[in-house]
Design a protein that fits this description.
The complex is a heterodimer of chains A (196) and B (26). Chain A is an alpha+beta fold. Chain A contains eight helices and six strands, in the order αββαααβαβααββα. Chain A has a six-stranded antiparallel β-sheet with strand order 3-2-1-6-5-4, sandwiched between helices. With 26 residues, chain B is mostly helical. Helices cover 65% and strands 0% of the residues of chain B. Chain B has one helix and no strands. Chain B is rod-shaped, with a radius of gyration of 11 Å. Classes of the chains: A alpha+beta (196), B mainly alpha (26). At the A-B interface, strand 2, helix 2, helix 3 and helix 4 of A face helix 1 of B.
């Protein structure tokens, strides 16, 4: 297929297509976009993300958070402030904002503030080595040398995958245990091989 | 929140909107 140009709109569509079309149950997908900092070094920063959430498992709502009451209050406060920032209103009475913020939602949100130097963290390693990093299993994540993998495990993830592409790295995370799939990696290569 | 760069606002807005949808459908 012809290779499409990189833009924000198709990025979101590609992330959504990747997750919604997958056989496996992925919780989120993030595209870490490569750029250069003031010194000319390669940095991977937030490009875009698609949060699907956790499997319902018939309980009516997503898996609840293991966080403390104080932590939940903190998350809700941040979410209210972010909502105000986006909507432009000073205060929000939106019930949806006051719903419990799950661990994976929080992990996804915090990811928006992160960046990785070339070779640093799971995304940086994947990009620097031009090879995929697939970490599956609570122990593997907990014992990883990468802070992001350990953080992911604390927030309930069982699988984190980073697949390099021309302009960055596609990261997928899941609360399920998912083993390596060449089908997924091929899909990333097709969907994220941008022309520019 | 003020630290969230302008470029990430679109992702954040989308996340919040989809979250509302999920809550309403729950």
């Amino acid at each position: 297929p012809p290779v499409a140009a990189f833009n924000q709109e198709t990025l979101q569509q590609r992330l959504q297509a990747l997750i919604e079309g997958a056989r496996e149950s992925w919780t989120y997908a993030i595209f870490w976009q490569s750029s250069y900092d003031y010194s000319g070094a390669t940095v991977l920063g937030w490009g875009d993300g698609y949060y699907k959430g956790e499997e319902d498992k018939g309980r009516g709502k997503s898996k609840s958070s293991a966080s403390s009451v104080a932590e939940q209050e903190h998350r809700k406060k941040v979410l209210r402030e972010l909502n105000s920032l986006i909507s432009g209103s000073a205060s929000s009475t939106d019930d949806a904002v006051d719903e419990e913020v799950t661990d994976t939602e929080w992990f996804f949100l915090v990811s928006m503030t992160q960046s990785f130097v070339n070779g640093g963290g799971l995304p940086g390693q994947a990009f620097f080595n031009s090879s995929s990093v697939w970490v599956a299993g609570t122990d593997s994540l907990a014992n990883s040398t990468c802070e992001r993998a350990r953080q992911g495990q604390i927030f309930g993830l069982q699988t984190i995958v980073c697949i390099p592409s021309e302009n960055g790295v596609v990261e997928l995370g899941s609360t399920e245990l998912i083993f390596q799939s060449s089908d997924l990696m091929n899909k990333v290569r097709v969907l994220f091989n941008f022309s520019n | 929140p003020s630290a969230v760069p302008q470029a990430r606002k679109a992702s954040l807005a989308r996340f919040l909107e989809k979250r509302k949808e999920r809550m309403m459908n729950a």
